[in-house]
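Every protein is a chain of amino acids, and every chain bends into a shape of its own. Below is the pair of lines this work produces for a single protein:
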Amino acid sequence: MTDTEPKVVDNPAASRFEVLVDGEVAGFAEYRRTTSAVAFTHTVIDPAFEGRGLGSVLARGALDATRAAGTPVLPFCPFIRGYIQRHPAYLDLVPADRRAEFQLAPVSDHPDRP
């Protein structure tokens, strides 16, 4: 029996989270760890695995693992940033004083918007 459920794992030696399907790397989210944050820099899903929602599985798994470690996130990667924009429950991972830099300030933070 094969494990068909995608699994997200941290591969610190390669500085990336990987999404595995049947033990095969289907994609990854590269990061740089500093003493104060995890900076996500690039996300890739192998073309052979596209269209299966694995990018979202990867983003969610990477962000959940980073939250569990208690480490703030700097979403330089447009995919991770977009995921956070679409899933505001992850907004708290981005330091409040850095959110505007990533265009993540909630609408309520803008006095000229309702």
